[in-house]
């Protein structure tokens, strides 16, 4: 069952990737084109998911909004991985004052509620794509640093590391060529779940009006449709479904990878 869900998740994310890459060609209309005659019209031929309060095609906006969600997710997770893995590996391997200081910083950042700090930072810096990415990266690296530090602590005294030291390998070589490759499985699993979390966070910020204002986003579509739920529920429902399916897709893949690499479950 787990493998089946993982394949379903892979199919969903593959569809998202194709949609994001081909968005200009797949969108049936200009997502920002206004047609007041179709204000809040429901799904019908020509506009399969209906139109919003300005008559803009909702399907076109969802298709183009997939680019924003995917770019934010990949960039934030990528930057967070580089920072978190680098700091966590150095802290776990060398220990000492650096390790202690890093863990105190991690503890302080983890004391903030998950979305509160990004809301504050985006509110101060301004609502645009770059600032959303920056705000989410501030907390994004913390989980990877903590995970990698624990993995490195468990690996650095194993026989293959001691053998590499005895042969005169440098510290960077030991970390990069010997220790980190044995830590990547849990990191990849966490990154998969992290993608889902980042996309959900970006949608939340956009829903609050803190997302980019010049391009369609799923969160902003839901925000605009919230006031019309009673008589035009399609405006908020379809972007919500897009967010739900994307998050489920990444979570299914993460569950599948975790089950595949969990030695205790497969023993």
List keywords for this structure.
single chain, 267 residues, mainly alpha, MetI-like fold, elongated
Task: Describe the model.
The protein has 267 residues and is an all-alpha fold. The protein has a single domain (2-266), classed as MetI-like fold, CATH 1.10.3720.10. It has twelve helices and no strands. The radius of gyration is 22 Å and the shape is elongated.
Give a concise summary.
With 267 residues, this protein is mostly helical. The protein is built from twelve helices and no strands. Helix 3 packs antiparallel against helix 4, helix 3 runs parallel beside helix 6 and helix 3 packs across helix 9.
Ends: how far apart?
18 Å
Helical content stands at over 70%
CATH class: Mainly Alpha
Q: Which descriptor suits the 3D outline?
A: elongated
- What is the count of DSSP helices, taking H or I runs of 4+ residues? 12
Rg, nearest Å: 22 Å
CATH superfamily: MetI-like
Order of helices and strands: HHHHHHHHHHHH
Tally the beta strands. Answer: 0
